[in-house]
Amino acid sequence: MIRKILNFGSLNADYVYTVDHIVRGGETISSSRMQVFPGGKGLNQSIALARAGLSVFHAGLVGTDGDFLLETLQKDGIDTRFVGQLDMKSGHTVIQVDSGAQNAILLFGGSNRAITEEYADGVLAHFSAGDLLLVQNEISALPHIIRRAREIGMEIWLNPSPMDAGALACDLSAVSVFLVNEVEGEQLTGTTDPEEILNRMTARYPNAATVLTLGGAGAWYARGEARAFCPAETVQAVDTTAAGDTFTGYLIRGVLDGLAPQDALRLAAKASAIAVSRPGASPSIPKYEEIQWK
């Protein structure tokens, strides 16, 4: 039985620019609008968990400009006792959103990359076997966090985004559930075919489940020989920035509720469809009572 949920993840200020098209190399274009939102995959996923009705602890670091990030978490009832503050800049992103609602993101790590193994140990000392750890790849010390969580006996959910050498340096055999999109799936397995991605992931990590999201082509769940598929919802997209983070939070809610994989995928897809129909990252994430999925 899961006792506590810890999301050890990033907290960013998102600077979102509305553009006609994503800027190309050597090109200068004008933006019709600029907005600032609280974000970071870690923050967004904590908010998705909270709005899905779950109790969650967030761990991470902000800079001197990060008070509004803490306040954002606290407004959704997220426990921030494990969020520290340093005398430096917080992480931030520059996000372009084009007329087709696609986005391109430039990420600066800031305080998210100042997490040390000692800081992580201090946080993880408050958790025990059976607790759930959710991590992404926007913070430092990730290999140590995963290794220590395994030693404790936590259930580890990994969203290895952005995929880089840091993610591959982790002991991926410790992961309980992989949450990957088609790009990350290809980077982990060397193939672009969704079925083959699932086959290779389950062969390589036989004790883990893999959830593969394919945008408008839906999402797959695989564990061993078992497979489940859910098509994407058809909606008018406004901003896809928090789609994956919303999906993650609601998928965890579905799994912890004991739903069958296909039903958990369907709940997550319904929530993501609402999120992409709204502007911004965390502000777009719906509350559980908004979702008509049964």
Entry summary:
With 294 residues, the protein is α/β, with parallel strands linked by helices.
Derived structural class? alpha/beta
What order do the SSEs take from the amino end to the carboxyl end, as H and E? EEEHEHEEEHEHEHEHHEEEHH
- Give the overall average pLDDT: 94
Kindly state the percentage of residues in helix: 25-40%
Radius of gyration over all CA atoms, rounded: 18 Å
Q: Strand order, main sheet: write it out.
A: 5-4-1-8-9-10-11-12-13
Largest sheet: 9 strands, mixed
Helix tally equals: 9
Q: Which consecutive residue ranges, at least 5 long each, have pLDDT under 50?
A: none
- The percent range for strand residues is 15-25%
Count the E strands.
13
Oligomer: single chain
Please give a handful of descriptors for the protein shown.
9 helices, 13 strands, globular, nine-stranded mixed β-sheet, 294 residues, four-stranded mixed β-sheet, 24% strand
